[in-house]
Amino acid sequence: MFKKLLIANRGEIACRVIKTAKRMGIPTVAVYSDADRNALHVKMADEAVHIGPPPASESYIVIDKIMQAIRDTGADAVHPGYGFLSENMKFAQALEAEGVAFVGPPANAIEQMGDKITSKKLAAEAGVSTVPGHMGLIEDAAEAIKISGEIGYPVMLKASAGGGGKGMRIAWSEDEVAEGFQASKNEAASSFGDDRMFIEKFVTQPRHIEIQVLADQHGNAIYLGERECSIQRRNQKVIEEAPSPFLDEATRKAMGEQAVALAQAVGYTSAGTVEFIVDGDRNFYFLEMNTRLQVEHPVTELITGVDLVEQMIRVAAGQPLEMAQDDVTLTGWAMESRLYAEDPYRNFLPSIGRLTRYRPPAEVAAGPLLETGKWQGDAKAGDTAVRNDTGVFEGGEISMFYDPMIAKLCTWGPDRPTAIEAMRVALDSFEMEGIGHNLPFLSAVMDHPKFASGDITTAFIAEEYPEGFDGVTLPEADLVRVAAAAAAMHRVAEIRRTRVSGRMDNHERRVGAEWVVSMQGQSFEAVIDADHDGATVTINGDALRVTSDWTPGDQLARLTVGDKPLVLKVGKRPGGFRLRTRGADLQVFVRTPRQAQLAELMPEKVAPDTSRLLLCPMPGLVVKIDVEAGDEVQEGQALCTVEAMKMENILRAERKGVVAKINAGAGDSLAVDAIIMEFE
């Protein structure tokens, strides 16, 4: 086995690899940029080497700097994680020349499968069904438009070396091809150092389902079931699960066997993933092969009991697989929610800053062990597990230089409904403050009837949230439960306030039993009958028993309301609370009946008028300004491009108007809500 393992990556995946390496008794080396000097993966590793400035192009993807770190530390193996150099053939070759083991596939397999154009040709030769498209390289937008017309709209513009949604665009017209082609090339160049593009037919109403393969250096290869990855936004996966609720056993077997055949055709070793598009009739088409560990690998580990990182290390060390295809069993169901530093209330634009509060739900092993993936006995009905793979900590910073993913929250249950319910509770219990994040949106998806039914495609988010996400409106039954909880919590807080020291003897404050709880445009009259064990809150004639150990100041409340659990994130507000649950962000006021009567007479505060301003929606760098002062612009016209977290965002005019003043230029670094331009 290896004497020392260097992880050529950062963040969550570096921490994940370090955990398994430590369990295997292998010392680890972390590498870090200036921005990651105090990062979690640096603290977890046995050694750490500084490799340069924050931009990945000057640190994490500079092969010479990684090679020097290897020489300086004497590492004899390297795990690349995902992204960065994980699918870089030249990096694998450099390691081979240095006599250092690459914990991944051979360089020739990376070359053949890592390039999307070459991989499609090889897949077709191997008899794998492929999506119609243009496999040759495309030089400019004019050629892209011509090819797109021949294929037929809609088409997918893709970077040949792409991944993680970078350099990908769906185009439904010539105008969208012309506009998206250059933006995709720019993203590909900045993220991968390779701006080659190709085009393929976009299959409408598709599911994105991938097969996990594992192969050793002795000719053995197996598949470990599939992952459903259809919940995507901008071609970036948001929620994954295993197995898929759509596949039957025959389709699973056919896809798995094709994936293994393709891996063996190119001499593949290590863990890899073969991605397919699957239509409504379960016809599947090869999409690409990722020659690395996938972000969503934990859901496969949770249903198979196989630690994929451990298997990658053992394969790289020349050991044969310890299991055959018949040994692979799928037990239960696993969900993964990707927590991103992006603000769903601002159309999911990137958010950076310091994590002033970061308290994930407690990790729980029930059935599968969390870090090893191995099973500890039989899972019982009602068992659930919670796992959180992360690379951040409370007080740490989310940088503008890297991918916005904060953590991967995973749950496991004996069946899909149980796994989903476990995820709902885990999301409600996840405390995160200081930045914009997508926790509310993830909660909304978990409660969406279409998702719960398993009737999903890659168009789910676009179809179900066409105007973006502006929070969840809870049904009245849920509001009543929240109102009962708020009333009981307010009473507890009021009692504590009556006990303040130093009060005058003749100014005793009494806490009444009648309250009016207002939220989401509704008011509920609540009557509280309290005792030592809790309170019975009567609303609309229904008596709800409320019990909890919540005390004022706690930012998370776990209650039982009407014999059902309720988890609330709690923030104090004058006259009430800010309560968040199941994707809803509620401003809750708890008043006496007289206070509620007077509150109805208060005027509402009007938000400032920003209709004549173009505000920067996220911290970022201005790439270009497309208009000048005095220009007349039309609705939907591109005004400027702002880059943040390796993604280019085109800001467009909301309505027709004339540009009065431009306050920023290309190269400027802007904060949220900075004024880019003004209109007459």
Automatic annotation (TrEMBL):
GO molecular function term, any single one = metal ion binding
Reactions the enzyme catalyzes: propanoyl-CoA + hydrogencarbonate + ATP = (S)-methylmalonyl-CoA + ADP + phosphate + H(+)
EC supergroup of this enzyme = ligase
* Pfam families for the chain: Biotin_carb_C, Biotin_carb_N, Biotin_lipoyl, CPSase_L_D2, PCC_BT
Q: Which Gene3D superfamilies match?
A: 2.40.50.100, 3.30.700.30, ATP-grasp fold, B domain
Annotated ranges, domain Biotin carboxylation: 1-466
Superkingdom of source: Bacteria
CDD domains per the record?
A: biotinyl_domain
Q: Identify the metabolic or biological route this protein is part of.
A: Metabolic intermediate metabolism; propanoyl-CoA degradation; succinyl-CoA from propanoyl-CoA: step 1/3
Protein keywords: ATP-binding, Biotin, Ligase, Lipid degradation, Lipid metabolism, Magnesium, Manganese, Metal-binding, Nucleotide-binding
Q: Which GO terms describe its biological process?
A: lipid catabolic process
What cofactor is this protein dependent on? biotin
Report domain Lipoyl-binding positions: 604-680
Q: Give the InterPro entries listed for this entry.
A: ATP-grasp, BC-like_N, Biotin_BS, Biotin_carboxylase_complex, Biotin_carboxylation_dom, Biotin_COase_C, Biotin_lipoyl, CPAse_ATP-bd
Q: Which residues form the ATP-grasp domain?
A: 120-317
As recorded in UniProt, its EC number(s) are 6.4.1.3
**Official protein name in the record:** propionyl-CoA carboxylase
Species annotation: Gymnodinialimonas phycosphaerae
